[in-house]
Fold this protein.
Amino acid sequence: MSPESLIAFNLVLVAAIASPGAALLCFIRTTVSAGRAAGIATGAGLGLAASMWTLAALLGLESVFRVFPWTYTTLKTAGALYLLWIAVQTWRHARRPVAERAAPRGRAFISGLLVNAGNPKSMLFAAAVILVVFPQGLAAQDIALIVANHLVLEIAFYTVCALLLSSGPARRGYLSAKPILDRIAATLLGALGLRLLLER
């Protein structure tokens, strides 16, 4: 495995992490409402689940899905229903002010973990990127390095974002745009959930 391959993987990964979706929405809402520590814990949960999907892709879970299609269908349906639930709740509460609330770091971590664990598309994305970027037949130490790199990059990204979002101006900016941002996010999440349910 060359350093260039790892750099290319990281560039694609950062773009994926920063793109709007359930993970970023969950992280932003937790950070704004519960503070920096809860946001970092949420990011750690998101990162752990995403890096485990990368590990699954590296170990060939996509092949298991091809052999046993029901496993993918089950995961996809559960993930789609969870995304639709988040979309409905986000739309319903778009105009509700974000109250500061305590969120135990353990609960925030589990919440982040469930959001990314419930989306098998994360694994399929990882599999597609891995097939393009990395050579076949990776050694065990290369696989461990890729997964550890993924986890560290996700945690670093969400930690930096939590530090930025917890500042006064950034928080006020988000709160002023919250109704619009939440409605957009709810629409995107709902569309993704419906697509997951309807596509074959």
Remarks:
- Residues 3-198 form one domain.
- The chain has nine helices and no strands.
- The radius of gyration is 17 Å.
